[in-house]
Amino acid sequence: MLSRMCKEVLVIEKFTFSFHKNLADEVQRWKCTTRGCKAYFKRNSAHEMFDKHLEHNHTHLDESVLRRKTISNNLKRKAQDRLHERPAKLIRSELEPADLEVLTAHDVNVIRKNIHYARSKCLPKLPKSIQEAQDALDTYDIKMMKG
Q: 76 CB contacts (<8 Å, ≥6 apart)?
């Protein structure tokens, strides 16, 4: 159903587009992810594009940048599903031998930080006072040794 918020990114002609908003009659509006770019398109419930304005005011992304972004997005999704798996294991499972030539050490560190940030949104915040800690224990229905 199109009413929920989409978090996916589409790549069209080496440009990335992200979901912007829902319009009437189950139509979605997607916009370019580069700030200041006016490129957009609309998509109906059958995922057919119409009302396109695909003129960009910037150059397209390199293949290496697109590959890094897709790896990072896939790993963020996996990290939220598998909270107890180590980030290094997730990264090794996602990388292919061809990716080792494309990614740098800086790219891997950025991906590792993205995994950490995606996981931190899933976990509850740490309490800042004794009262908040007690309230958290009450909401999670945790039993102590004394009852």
A: 114, 115, 118
Residues contacting 51, CB < 8 A, separation 6+: 41, 42
Q: Which two tokens stand for residue 124?
A: 């509850």
Nearest to 70 by CA among 9, 113, 112: 9
Structure tokens at 58: 């910037």
Q: What is the pLDDT of residues 43-76, one digit of tens each?
A: 998 888 888 888 999 998 888 888 888 888 888 8
Q: What is the dihedral of CA 85, 132, 147, 139, to 10 degrees?
A: -70
Q: How do 15-23 and 9-12 pair as beta strands?
A: antiparallel
Q: How many Cα atoms occupy the beta-carbon half-sphere of 102 within 13 Å?
A: 15
N-term to C-term CA, the chain: 46
